[in-house]
């Protein structure tokens, strides 16, 4: 059992060394893009929701 754990840990360490981590600037840029897309999408859904609510209250 101990050999399996050590082998697993060793394999994880080898794979983690292959990972390409983003730079601080890339991370900031990605965060800004994701935040902007979330804001735009939430405003779009808010608008559609209000439009549908207005239409339904107008009908009934």
Question: What report would you give on this structure?
Answer:
The protein is mainly α. The chain has a domain at 21-60. The protein is 88% helix and 0% strand. It is built from 2 helices and no strands. The radius of gyration is 24 Å and the shape is elongated. The mean pLDDT is 96.
Could you give the topology of this structure?
Layout: H1 2-18, H2 24-59
The helix content, as a percent range, equals over 70%
Unreliable residue runs:
none
Shape: elongated
Average residue pLDDT? 96
Intertermini distance:
68 Å
The helix-and-strand class reads mainly alpha
Q: Helical stretch count?
A: 2
**Roughly how many Å is the radius of gyration?**
24 Å
Strand content: under 5%
Total number of β-strand segments?
A: 0
Largest sheet: none
Outline of the structure:
The protein has 60 residues and is mostly helical.
What would the keywords be for this entry?
about 60 residues, mainly alpha
């Amino acid at each position: 059992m101990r050999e399996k754990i050590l082998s697993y840990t060793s394999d994880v360490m080898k794979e983690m060394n292959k990972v390409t981590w983003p730079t601080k600037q890339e991370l900031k840029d990605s965060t800004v893009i994701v935040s902007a897309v979330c804001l735009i999408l939430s405003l779009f859904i808010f608008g559609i929701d209000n439009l549908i609510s207005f239409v339904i209250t107008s009908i009934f």
